[in-house]
Amino acid sequence: MNLILHLLLDAAVIFGLAYLLPQVDVKSFGTALLIAVLLGLLNFFVGWVIRFPLNLVTFFLLSGIVRIIVTAILLKLIDKFMDSFTIVGFWPALLIAIAVAVAGTLIDRSAPTQQMVDSGYMASVLSQLRFA
């Protein structure tokens, strides 16, 4: 469930920033969803290959910044593969990468932990929402 939420949120962030930034062009929300899926797959399969040497150079002190830069590089790579997605320049890709990272962090922080689910906290919250 969390994966689907992340993909939808990433697609919404990409689509929203494409609407706001003139340097970014996304044809439809479906394209933004495909970009989010490709970004997740590339981060999983290729991102660590790029991140590891950069983290070694920075002694793992700047791993968050390295992750954002690698995400921006992967967005530019996706731009080269897809005709329906265009980013002009590196700065808009970096801005999208920062927005995706912030949105992902907010979702991860607001998601219930397994301890909350096991204790019945989520059931009581849901019952309060149904009767409110």
Automatic annotation (TrEMBL):
The keyword Transmembrane applies. Signal peptide: none annotated. It holds the Pfam family Phage_holin_4_2. The chain crosses the membrane at residues 30-50, 57-78, 84-107. It comes from Spirosoma utsteinense. Coiled coil: none annotated. This is Membrane protein. Keywords: Membrane, Transmembrane, Transmembrane helix.
